[in-house]
Design goal:
By secondary structure, this protein is an alpha/beta fold. It has helices at about 35, 55-65, 80-90, 105-120, 135-145, 155-175, and strands at about 5-10, 15-20, 45-50, 70-75, 95, 125-130, 150. It has a domain at about 60-175: Response regulator (Rossmann fold), CATH 3.40.50.2300.
């Protein structure tokens, strides 16, 4: 593989380890085909999104990304808070952190799906927002009822593609 490892240590001050690896360039992840082809023209219609994340900074980042994209944002700091909000409010989209203490994003989505089924309501689209995006992890999210995923850190372009896709889906539901 090649590379270098070095150590610098000063008594009472600490130690610095430096690792330099020579790696071949990796491949960029493939765009998610389900919403890649959509145009930005459909961004005119506002969406209501529930952002669920236990980290306040992550909620703020998502709000900052969504604000110029004509999305009305409500935030929840836990899975339980999200379920409480979803009892009384309708959202076009839920952006769900997967790893949260207590009820995680997968369990929260499963609880939501159970409630929707019991009430005879249509499914609220839920998107996993996570750094865990290996194919088997994404498959597990989808089998648990999450429609799509966004990799953390969220890139604006991918978020625009996702919103475009869900706006298109929303228009199709309204015209049906």
């Amino acid at each position: 593989m090649g590379g270098k490892i070095s150590v610098e240590s000063t008594v009472g001050a600490g130690t610095v380890f430096t690792v330099a690896l020579l790696l071949a360039p990796g491949e960029a992840p493939m765009p998610q085909e389900s919403f890649k082809h959509q145009s930005l023209d459909t961004l005119a219609e506002r969406l209501r999104a529930l952002v669920v994340d236990d980290v306040a900074t992550n909620r703020l980042v998502m709000q900052t990304l969504l604000a110029p994209l004509e999305v009305d944002v409500t935030c929840a700091a836990s899975g339980q808070e999200a379920l409480d909000i979803l009892k009384s409010e309708h959202f076009d989209l839920v952006l769900m952190d997967v790893q949260m203490p207590g009820m995680d994003g997968v369990e929260t989505t499963q609880q939501l799906r159970l409630r929707e089924q019991r009430a005879g309501r249509s499914k609220t689209p839920v998107v996993a927002v996570t750094s865990n995006v290996l194919p088997e992890q994404v498959a597990a999210y989808k089998s648990a009822g999450l429609e799509e995923h966004l990799a953390k850190p969220v890139k604006r372009e991918e978020l625009v593609e996702l919103l475009t896709y869900f706006r298109s889906e929303q228009k199709q539901r309204k015209s049906a």
